[in-house]
Amino acid sequence: MTAHYTRVSHIVLRQGCTTFLSTLTYTTEDPLAVTLTIALGGLALATNEPKVRVWAFDRDLLLVGLTGPVGSGDIRIRPSSAEPSRLLIRLVSPSGDSTFSTAKAIVDQFATAIFRAVPPGTEDAWLDLDDTISKLLEAEA
Fold it and tell me: Distance between CA 77 and CA 91 in Å, rounded?
């Protein structure tokens, strides 16, 4: 495939009374993954760039997580039992873990769009393995 597809959805993550502006990003350059970027606020001292945390994960987690609990590693997603219109996203790292909630409808729209653009089972048509191998070989040189 030569044409690329990219979908970005802006979401607000809540953790208690704190909100974090965040984005979900999907691109056919990596057709199996979704990226969640969370803006933490403020600037990093060393670079003067905005403080962000980036989590990449299998796009299937979003789809399954809309209807039931999924994930056993760094990212766990499930509908909120207390607030049916919310989706819970738990991020686990060596430094700790955090659970956020977000509007389930926005994530549902995002998931629907990316699975419509690249239906399950067609992801390999978007992969350019020759280019990936070339980049890996260049990095070793």
Answer: 9
Q: How many CB atoms lie within 10 A of CB 89?
A: 25
Among 101, 56, 92, 62, residue whose Cα is nearest residue 74: 92
DSSP 28: T
* pLDDT tens for the chain, residues 1 to 141: 445 677 778 878 788 878 888 999 999 888 999 999 988 775 555 666 677 889 999 999 999 999 999 998 899 999 999 999 999 999 988 888 889 999 999 999 999 999 999 999 988 888 777 777 887 788 776
**Does 82 fall in a domain?**
yes
* Contact assessment for residue 9 and residue 34, using Cβ atoms and an 8 Å cutoff: no
91 occurs within a structural domain: yes
* Residue 1 lies inside a defined structural domain of this protein: no
Instruction: Please list, residue by residue across 38-51, b when 16 or more beta carbons sit within 10 angstroms of its beta carbon and e when fewer do.
Output: beeeeeeeeeeeee
Domain of residue 54 covers 6-140
**Structural domain contains residue 132:** yes
The size of the chain, in residues, is 141
